[in-house]
Amino acid sequence: MEYDIGMDEPVSMAVIRAVSAVEGRDPLSLPPLANVIDTDALDALFNPRCDGTARTGGRLSFVYSNCRFTIDNGEYLTFQLLENRSSPDEYSRRG
């Protein structure tokens, strides 16, 4: 599945909105994305440079809420549901 990240939309919010839409759940009912990845670092990685110019290139992949996410260039988010696997959130609860 694909999701176009809005021009002023933080990447971390795009991830939450995508999961919320696919799972049909309120975003506030999802496990915190920060349990899986540093959301400030995620957003900063794809934010414009200090002089306002866009960053080009870059790809990041991670697993959250039983989905594998790939973010390309801070513009496109693709995700795939993982089958028969525990989510990272379940691992963190087992501690």
From TrEMBL:
Domain named Halobacterial output is located at 8-75
What the entry lists under Pfam families is as follows:
HalOD1
Q: Which domain of life is it from?
A: Archaea
User: What InterPro entries does its record include?
Assistant: HalOD1 (IPR040624)
Name of the molecule in the record:
Halobacterial output domain-containing protein
Q: Which organism is it from?
A: Halogranum amylolyticum
